């Protein structure tokens, strides 16, 4: 009898220990299907679901961290430019708020790695995944606020303040549509398709 490892997909010629009797989950993450999207394949176990969610969080973290770290580095460099000394009080306050938001976003988006490192080996993967998911959500909200403040800071230097504020408002509506409204709409559509 050969056994295929669920983690690596490798087939070994040796029968492995029996899998624990995990409860099979259908409707993963509120959506039918083992992969959480299209309903293909058998339902996943609770362990498989936690492992999948952890892998997804790591991928999301890699994408978000890159963006926030580049933005944070850009913001830190501004304080050392010659023009920084000529900024108005409003622009200086806006800059400080933006840097604090960027630092907070960086901390929240890197938190899943620290949480995992501190709790590794303690058989707390479900709790780690839940905490990491909450920190990712917090980090993404902070990142959106950081981008709004950065945009206002830059546009305020080249446009009259009312125009800068209108443009930032429009861009943030676009962010809300892309980052929050669209995913919730897709989720609702999937739930409606499944029916009661």
From TrEMBL:
Any Pfam family: DUF6328
Keywords: Membrane, Transmembrane, Transmembrane helix
Superkingdom, natural source: Bacteria
Compositional bias (Low complexity): 1-14
InterPro entries registered for this protein in UniProt: DUF6328
Membrane-spanning ranges: 63-81, 93-115, 136-157, 163-184
Keyword presence, Nuclease: no
Protein name: DUF6328 family protein
Source species: Streptomyces roseicoloratus
Lineage, opening ranks: Bacteria, Bacillati, Actinomycetota, Actinomycetes, Kitasatosporales
